[in-house]
Specification:
- The complex is a heterodimer of chains A (about 200) and B (about 400).
- A five-stranded mixed β-sheet of chain A has the order 2-1-3-5-4, sandwiched between helices.
- Chain A is about 65% helix and about 10% strand.
- Chain B is α/β, with parallel strands linked by helices and about 400 residues long.
- The longest helix of chain B is centred in the middle third of the chain and has 19 residues.
- Chain B is globular.
- Classes of the chains: A alpha/beta (about 200), B alpha/beta (about 400).
- At the A-B interface, helix 3 and helix 4 of A face helix 3 of B.
């Protein structure tokens, strides 16, 4: 069994997410946190580190490799629990939805693993929210560019002012129940075709 | 009105009936609105099916059984109303191991007993020379690949737990691992064996159909309680998959089926490589040598789609043989109950036909398989973790 702070291994190819997770765990007082980003010889490295808990990104194909580790561990009669336990379907669901999977290697008590898992779930959720925001900002920027280019085309073709071009696109969008970005994109497409 | 469904799959050729069912509109024709979700690991597919994020899944047949028995993970009863494929795997070895086996072989290289005995001599030679044990990659602890490798090497006298190393490798990492010497061989489904051969880093030593004539590979899996509540949806899915299987097996459609499967959001490899598997005409060595087998992968042909409980019993027997579980009659019954020919028959409007009278497996070694006497069957094998 481990000493006071359980040894936690984070298997994640994303350095940013791993850092967010590691920081959170340290803040919460878990001192023995190790990050593995290299998937070659994963099992050997995990055996060498001998962790109590393994946290892995759900989109990592090496999850299947860990399943073998538990099979082998079973053969050497080490107590194993996965996620929390059979009865705790809600924890499993929450962690799968957040994109994190936790494996508890040794006989860690449920009360000790729960805060680790909860923290990881909230950190993973925070990370994916950040990712979503980033994606949204990116696509908003893209849309702005498309609208600006479409305005330019209308101004040149119709002799509109910038405001008139914008008003035309907006009213067309409302009439056709589409987004202004979609109208702008079809102007770009049409002008490409008519070139 | 169409029923929305989320179905998980792993990018492998034996997901063909499922992918074609969706992408050629067979599911739509049955009133189903299916979203296919590509996954990276069997653990993910299993977990997302178990907690209801997927309604159905392309799943390793032994995982459906393990999940129903609570082996290796939480216990969630799964049923398989449709078998997506029989066979389809191959054993590929590095050029160095291929040369070593060929220098020791007596007899025909397509005879798995001859290669297994040769492997045993290679293993013994390495032991004498103090070399590292050979490492074999497979896809999952509860996988046909694991059991096929073990069955083959044990028949030649190699103990898979003592004499070699068996490691799990995600299929997309197999070829690299063989190329960089991390493994000496692997057993995996298509397209990975062909990819290794095309890159010149591997020789296909065996089609698994050399080892077992009929091996249930992937199933269409659903949760038991979901199947009970959605019997009509299950039947519609089975019919759609069955139409897709018929479509794929018609040689006139092969090229188009391969195109559908090759798309980047499906399997995402060259259509030509996929078609080799469907046709059972594989390039087996980097010098261009080919081998054909009309049993390489069976998608619906020869009754392949109808789940056979005797196949489930064989898979359970392998779990017992290799110490993944103890032999318990009620667990055997549960395992056999995962494969549901009755649901298949109900969907297809067929009368149930009994499984083959003698042996549903056709293994190259050992006695004919008898689901009624698993302990007797296992007692015939010298190597194994199970002792009576």
């Amino acid at each position: 069994m481990s000493a006071e702070s359980p040894k936690i291994v984070i298997v994640d190819e994303s350095p940013i997410r791993a850092a967010i997770l590691e920081e959170g765990l340290r803040e919460a007082g878990f001192t023995g946190v190790v990050h593995i980003s290299e998937m070659q010889n994963l099992l050997a490295r995990i055996y060498a580190l001998d962790p109590d808990v393994i946290l892995i990104d759900l989109e990592n194909p090496s999850r299947d490799v860990l399943e073998q580790m538990f099979q082998v561990s079973r053969a050497v009669r080490r107590p194993i629990a996965m996620f929390v336990d059979q009865s705790d379907a809600a924890s499993i669901q929450a962690s799968v939805e957040a994109g994190v999977s936790a494996y508890i290697v040794d006989g860690l008590k449920k009360e000790r693993i729960k805060p680790i898992l909860d923290l990881c779930i909230s950190r993973f959720n925070a990370f994916s929210k950040l990712q979503d925001e980033l994606d949204r900002t990116k696509s908003a920027l893209e849309e702005r560019k498309v609208i600006d280019r479409a305005k330019g085309i209308l101004m040149k073709a119709k002799g509109f002012t910038e405001d008139e071009a914008y008003v035309l696109m907006r009213s067309t969008a409302m009439r056709e129940k589409k987004k202004i970005g979609e109208i702008a994109q079809s102007i770009l497409t049409a002008s490409e075709l008519l070139k | 009105m169409s029923t929305p469904l989320r179905i998980g799959f792993i990018p492998l050729v034996d997901a063909a009936a499922l992918i074609v069912a969706v992408d050629k509109g067979f599911t739509r024709a049955e009133g189903l609105d299916v979203t296919l979700v590509r996954e990276v690991s069997w653990s993910n597919v299993r977990d997302k099916l178990n907690i209801g994020m997927f309604d159905a899944a392309h799943l390793l047949a032994p995982v459906a059984i393990a999940s129903s028995l609570g082996l290796g993970h939480v216990k969630v009863p799964i049923v398989a109303p449709f078998n997506l494929g029989l066979n389809g795997n191959a054993i590929t070895v590095s050029p160095a191991l291929h040369a070593a086996i060929m220098s020791e072989i007596e007899g025909d290289a397509v005879d798995p007993m001859a290669t297994a005995l040769a492997l045993a001599r290679v293993v013994a030679n390495r032991k004498k020379a103090g070399a590292e044990p050979l490492t074999f990659g497979m896809t999952f602890p509860f996988s046909t690949h694991n059991y096929q490798l073990r069955f083959w090497m044990a028949a030649g006298g190699v103990d898979p737990d003592e004499d070699v190393r068996l490691v799990v490798l995600p299929p997309p990492y197999m070829v690299d691992s063989l190329a960089n010497g991390h493994v000496d061989a692997f057993c995996v489904g298509a397209p990975w064996n062909s990819v290794a051969v095309d890159l010149g880093v591997g020789h296909i030593l065996h089609f698994v159909s050399d080892i077992l004539v009929r091996a249930a590979e992937k199933v269409l899996a659903v949760r038991q309680n979901w199947a009970e509540k959605n019997a009509d949806v299950v039947a519609a899915l089975v019919r759609a998959a069955s139409h897709a299987a018929d479509y794929i097996e018609d040689p006139a459609n092969r090229a188009e089926a391969a195109q559908v499967l090759a798309r980047p959001d499906r399997i995402g490899v060259d259509a030509e490589v996929i078609q080799r598997t469907l046709d059972g005409r594989l390039k087996v060595s980097p010098d261009g040598q080919r081998r054909e087998s009309n049993r390489y992968l069976l998608v619906g042909r020869e009754g392949a789609a109808r789940p056979d409980p005797a196949q489930a019993a064989w898979l359970y027997a392998q779990m017992v043989r290799w110490g993944q579980t103890a032999m318990r009659p009620e667990a055997l019954k549960t395992a056999m109950g995962v494969f549901r020919p009755d649901l298949y028959d109900a969907a297809m409007g067929q009368q149930g036909t009994a499984a083959g009278a003698s042996d549903a497996i056709g293994a190259f070694a050992g006695p004919a398989f008898d689901p009624g006497d698993i302990e007797g069957h296992l007692a015939a094998f010298e190597i194994g973790r199970w002792k009576p």
